[in-house]
Amino acid sequence: PTPSASPIPSINAIPLNGDIASLPNEPMMRVGLFKATNDELHVRAFQAPLQVQQGGSTICRVATGEAIVIRYDRAQRVYTLRGASCQRQSSQHYLVRAEDGLSAMEITDFTRPSGWLTTSNDDKYRAQLELRYAPITNSVWVINELPFEYYLRGIAETSNVSPQEFQRTLLTAARTYGYYHIQRATKHADEFHLVDAMYDQVYRGYGHEMRT
């Protein structure tokens, strides 16, 4: 039978603005990038200013080129925020969001070189980052939340050297897999993300997007 189009669900969707206003709303993907070994996240505003948000409100702004550090204190069970314009402490986690909703920011204490281009470092990610303590697994995760189609651009299961039809087929499968987990939201629910950047689909973010 002729397949019918399914409506895009509004859950986890955000309005897009600025230079991407022509795109429709789309679901958001939450990617567990890695477990923070020192319970810290160091972020620098790379392409655009950043907003640090909590509970839906912006609590401070980070100018382009400036950096902040978010740390989870396991003993006190609080998040601390340090930077030139941000000095706070709270029992609730902080969100670091690109002011335009999409630009890339840099994780300055993270090193992940490309396997075939060792001079590169995939430490830049679009849209939003957060440091989140997961009490059930007693782990602290760095999580990247971004529009679903931009997540797909950062998937590094293939590259431009592969045949074009292979790339199309793989990304169709990747989209299906990712969308399935957006709808179910159960696999990594204990750690507040939807897919793992290493063990579900290899996701390397903005660096891979620029290379391919």
Strands, count: 13
Tell me the fraction of residues in β-strands, as a range. 25-35%
Q: What is the arithmetic mean of pLDDT?
A: 88
Question: Helices and strands: which structural class?
Answer: alpha+beta
- Helical proportion, percent range: 10-25%
Gyration radius (Cα, Å) is 17 Å
Detail the poorly predicted runs: 8-12
C-alpha geometry: globular
Count every helix, treating DSSP H or I runs of 4 or more residues as helices: 3
Main sheet record: 7 strands, mixed
Task: Report, as a whole number of angstroms, the end-to-end distance.
Answer: 36 Å
The string of secondary-structure elements, in order, is: EEEEEEEEEEEEHHEH
Strand order of the largest sheet: 4-3-8-11-12-1-13
Fold and architecture overview:
The chain is an alpha+beta fold. 16% of the residues lie in helices and 33% in strands. The protein has three helices and 13 strands; from the N terminus they run E-E-E-E-E-E-E-E-E-E-E-E-H-H-E-H. It has helices at 148-153, 164-184, 206-211, and strands spanning 28-35, 40-44, 50-54, 57-62, 67-73, 78-83, 87-90, 95-98, 104-107, 124-126, 128-134, 139-147, 195-196. A seven-stranded mixed beta sheet has the order 4-3-8-11-12-1-13. Strands 7-6-5-2-9-10 form a six-stranded antiparallel beta sheet, with no helix packed on it. Strand 6 (78-83) and strand 7 (87-90) form a beta hairpin. 33% of the residues are buried.
